[in-house]
Every structure is written in C-alpha cells, then in structure tokens.
Design brief:
Layout: E1 2-9, E2 18-23, E3 44-45, H1 48-58, E4 64-68, H2 74-87, E5 92-96, E6 113-116, E7 134-138, E8 147-149
Parallel strand pairs: 2-4, 4-5, 5-6
Antiparallel strand pairs: 1-2, 1-3, 6-7, 7-8
C-alpha cells in the first residue's frame, strides 16, 4: 500500500483536526472523481514505520488520522489502524472507503469513523443532503452494526 500525500484538514471528520493520508491504487474509479491521480499505483510505502514518522511530526496538532482510500488492500488499512490504536491510543482513526459495503477485512474495533460510498457526481459529496455517501461514528452495538450516521454534520443550515 502506498500514499501520495498528506495534509492536516478540518472538514473530513467533524469536530476533529485530522491528518488526511491519500492512498493510491484506488480500484473504485468513480466517475467525476476529483483525485484521479490516486487511481495509479504511485507514491511511498505506507506502513507502521512511515506512519510513525508522520505522527511524531504532527504530535499534538492532530486528533485523528483518516486513511483516504485503500480499497485495494483493506486488510492493510485495518492493520495500520489497529497498530495506531495501540501505539497512539489518544488519536482517533477514520477510513474513507469508496465501496458501498464495509469490507469483511475491516475490524470496527480499530476505527472511530468509517465513510462508505462511492462518489456519484449526480448525488454530490458528503456536504450535500442528496449524497449517497455516509459517515458513521463507529459503535458496533448499533442496530446497523456500524454506528451512528453523522453525515448530517456536513450539511450547512
């Protein structure tokens, strides 16, 4: 698994200062995708060592890490999130998947937030009430098995 770039963002996960990590080799190829460069298998290896360097660099400036993509190897995203929870228990973890259904290779105990859904241009992104994408605050005891749908936090009133 490789990543292309990172950034500290404020809009990907509500109420969190998030280190967003853009993972390449996306198999979803959504029509209208704003990050088509991530379809290619490019970038630097993303593993516990490279993630550790990033987290030490950002220190207390972040509250969450979001893995943006990784649908080609969800087991690797899951493994890194699990490692993060033990090495950096004060940080939350999120995964943005372009799939409509959660991979069976993902263990919810490793995540605080999960976004599911491909980008469908006619439906719009998460900040549009018409979106098909859903952001969950993870709670495996929820009726749906994933957690609370918090997508509405993106919608301006």
């Amino acid at each position: 698994m490789k990543y292309v770039n990172t950034g500290v963002v404020f809009q990907e996960i509500p109420d969190e200062v998030t280190l967003s990590i853009n993972i390449s080799n996306c198999p979803c190829h959504c029509m209208g995708c704003h990050s088509q460069y991530l379809w290619e298998d490019i970038g630097e290896p993303l593993n516990a060592m490279s993630l550790d360097v990033m987290l030490k660099e950002y220190g207390d400036d972040i509250t969450c890490v979001a893995f943006m993509g990784g649908d080609a190897t969800p087991e690797k995203v899951d493994s890194l999130a699990g490692w993060m929870h033990s090495a950096y228990p004060h940080l939350k973890t999120a995964w943005y998947s372009g799939r409509a259904i959660l991979s069976d290779k993902i263990h919810l105990k490793n995540f605080d937030y999960i976004k599911l859904g491909p980008y469908i241009e006619s439906k719009g992104p998460l900040n549009k009430p018409t979106t098909n994408q859903v952001l969950y605050k993870v709670n495996p005891k929820a009726e749906n098995g994933i957690g609370e749908n918090i997508t509405k936090k993106f919608w301006k009133k």
